[in-house]
DNA sequence: CGGCCTTTGAAGGTA
DNA sequence: TACCTTCAAAGGCCG
C-alpha cells in the first residue's frame, strides 16, 4: 500500500500499507512525493478551474457556500468559541482540500477530476458517510434516509466540540444546489464546531454523529422538519455514536459499490465486497493513493471534530458473535505457522493476504493442500500459489452451491467439489451464467463444515 | 429485529 | 514488536 507520508505529516497508513506495496516495486520515493506536491498541484489546478470563465455554475455555488460558511464561522468565532488554531491545516493545503473533494461532481460534463481521474465516479443511491463528503462521488443531495444522518447532535457531541479553525467548514460538502438548497430535509449538516451553544442556525446536525435507532428526530429530518429536541432532553439523552472515520478501502467501496452492483447485478454486500476487494488489489498505486489520501483527510478531520474520541468508544456497540478463535488451528507447533515466519519480511510477496494484513494465516495455519488464492484482474494469483481453480459447473441448493472445480495447475484436470456457502450463492449464479470464470477454494477453517468452502475470486464480470 | 456475511484498513490492547 | 480484536459500510439473508 502506498505510503503517502508527505514531509512531516503523520502516517497515512499503517504498516500494512507499506507491506502491501513493497511487492510492487521500489518507487517509494516517488510515491512519497505524491502528497505534498501533487496535492498542491491538484488544489491549485482545481482552484484555477473554478476560477476559469468556463467554471460550471455549480462550482461557483460551491465557492459561494464556502464563503458564506467562512463568514458564518467568523461570526461564531466572535461569539467567543475561538480557542485555538490548527496549524496543521495552515498552509498545508488542507484548507483547500474540500475543494479538492467537492469539485469533482461539479466539474463540467461529468468528467472526473484529477483526484478521481481513473476511478469511475458513481452515483450511490444511499447516504454519505459523515465525513465522506470528502469523497467526490455524489452530485445528488444527501439521501434523507442516510443512516449517518445524525439527529440529535445538538444536544450531544457537537456542543462539546472545541472551537474550530475557519478552514473547517470548507471541508463539508456543498449540495449542488448551493446554499439555497441546504436544508435539513436533505440531510445537510452543520459543522459541530459552528454550533456554538449547540444549535446551529440551520439546526442541521453533523452526520458523523449517528443517533441510535428509533430516533424520531430522524423522521423529522426525513420530512424536512426540524427535530423536536426538547422532549428528548427531558429523557435521558442517549449518547450518539460517533462512527469511525472510513479507511481507504471503505471509501473505495462506497464509491464503487453501485457500479459493481450495476455490472454484476448483485445485491448481496458480502459478494460485492469480495469483488471490491479484488478490484482494490487490482488498482494501481496511484489510484489507491487517492483513497489513502482521502482516508487520511478523514482521519484528520475526525480528530479535529472529536478530539477525545477513540475507536474504542464504539467497542461493544455491535454485538459480535463469539469468534472462531476458540477453534484456532494454531495447534500445530512443528510446522511454520505463518507466511511471515516462513518467508520473512523481505519476501512479503509470498505472503497470503491475511498475513499481509496481520491476520490469521490461511495458508500454513490451515495446511497447504487447498486450492485457492485470490486472482488479480489479470488472472495472476495475488497471493501467490496455489493456483486458482476454474469453475466448471455449479449446482445451487438451498444452502450451498456445489461447484466442480479444476485447477489449471493440475494437468490431469481432476475435478473436485467445493461448496459455496449460502451467503455467496449469488456468486455461483454468476459462475453458471459465465460472469465469473475463476474461483478459489479454501478448505473449511472450522469443524462445522466438512466440505471445502469456496471463496470465489472474480476474474471477469 | 438484529446478527451474519465479506472485504481492507485503522486503532488500541495484549503478550 | 508482533499479534489480535473490533469497527467502519452495505444490504440480503436467516433465525
TrEMBL record:
Bias (Polar residues): 452-461
Keyword Zinc appears in the UniProt entry: no
Keywords per UniProt: Activator, DNA-binding, Nucleus, Repressor, Transcription, Transcription regulation, Wnt signaling pathway
Chain intervals with Basic and acidic residues compositional bias: 19-37
InterPro entries listed in its UniProt record: Catenin-bd_sf (IPR027397), CTNNB1-bd_N (IPR013558), HMG_box_dom (IPR009071), HMG_box_dom_sf (IPR036910), TCF/LEF (IPR024940)
Span list, region Disordered: 1-37, 312-340, 440-461
GO biological process: one example: canonical Wnt signaling pathway
Known DNA-binding region: 242-310
Any single Pfam family the record assigns to this protein: HMG_box
Gene Ontology cellular component list: beta-catenin-TCF complex; chromatin
Residues covered by the HMG box domain: 242-310
SMART domains, sorted: c-clamp, HMG
Chief place of localization: nucleus
Location(s), subcellular: Nucleus
Keyword Nucleus: yes
GO molecular function: DNA-binding transcription factor activity, RNA polymerase II-specific; RNA polymerase II cis-regulatory region sequence-specific DNA binding
Homology family: Belongs to the TCF/LEF family.
Protein name: HMG box domain-containing protein
